[in-house]
## 1
Amino acid sequence: MKKFRNILTLGLMVVLMLSACGGSGAQAGTGKTVEYTLQATLKDGRMVYIGLGGDIHGQVNPVLKANVGDTVKVTLSSIDGTEHNISFLDFGIDSEHVLGQGSSVTVTFFVDKGGTFDYYCTIPGHREAGMAGSFEVTGESLSSSGTNSAAP
Ligand SMILES: [Cu+2]
């Protein structure tokens, strides 16, 4: 058991070292932190996310983009005063809820696989009401034998 833990620690260190090396610019996207800010609100009778700042400013349910190896940081605030959250369930992220105007939550996660995924509000009815968007990740999924993901 102790040996197993040591191997895990070693694996983690290797991952950290690899992501540190990515900063050298050899691999595009690796080791970057991509930040997005979204506001949850009502628009034309729908519940939506609106981008705040950067390329997504003013967009309704903007497509969020990242590269495999990036760390994504998303801050969500509520401007309609209703309870909301944001989830990236493919990455195990289901944020705490924002409740009331001006409050915000931030989720941060490491992007280890490529493809097109969904993000949405997991509060019952909100996804159906319009609170959903796409998360597009460029790059090959990291092949890590150490992942304990349940996905086959
Ligand atoms: Cu919501």
## 2
Amino acid sequence: MGDILDVITSRKSIRRFKSDPVPEDVIDKVLEAARWAPTGENYQPWRFVVIRNQETRNKIGDLAKCGSGSRMTAWYCLGHMQERFEKIEDPVKRAEVLRFMYSGEVSEFAKVAPVVIAIAGSLQVGSVDVPYDLSAAIENMLLEAHSLGYGGCWVHGPVASSRDAVKFKKILGIPTAMNAYKVIAYVAIGHALEQRRHPRPKIPLSELVYWEEFGKTTRPKLELKDIVSYEKFEEKGKK
Ligand SMILES: Cc1cc2nc3c(=O)[nH]c(=O)nc-3n(C[C@H](O)[C@H](O)[C@H](O)COP(=O)(O)O)c2cc1C
């Protein structure tokens, strides 16, 4: 079996797309990848709505813009946004980036993504695991699209509040009853318009991983005597 770490580490969120359509077989493969994601108790609660219609994508883009805009305006008012982009030295450029973020334009790109795939989780079929199931499916979709040479982005913007989630469902004809479907995002897919600088800064493992106990950063030597063989484990269970 191949190591897919190169696929994983070279993926990046793409928000600017060429207008070329995404071939049908690519869409099918992306959906196929989603179908194979792990899912709590194998419920497979996911349902996918593939959207290419321009008018529908415009509505989703507007909703995502409002959702992201209200969230980021709050961060801007609290000063977090300014902190996040303080490394941009040119004040004009910094102001433009900030405006792009708090206006919500950052999440408007469904309008120019050739394909948008909305992911809805059936709360009747699924369990408490539905949001995790959907997240696993989304990651599979992004990785498959990337491995096929397409760019994609996970967009939570249009479902940032429960009111927006209802609007999102209405746009797509997803039943809006509270206990029917959970919508957590859509995925935009297309040919990347340009190569973005990558990788995005990621926190090194040395700052993320602890060994045996939270906070312990030193990797202990593995003692083979500590490992219980499956046979012994099974034997114990039978007793
Ligand atoms: C749960 C989740 C929600 C996200 N929502 C949005 C969004 O609404 N708009 C957007 O432009 N990007 C969104 N993204 C993409 C992230 O901004 C992106 O993954 C992050 O900045 C890291 O960049 P990278 O994917 O290029 O590594 C979301 C990603 C995740 C996992």
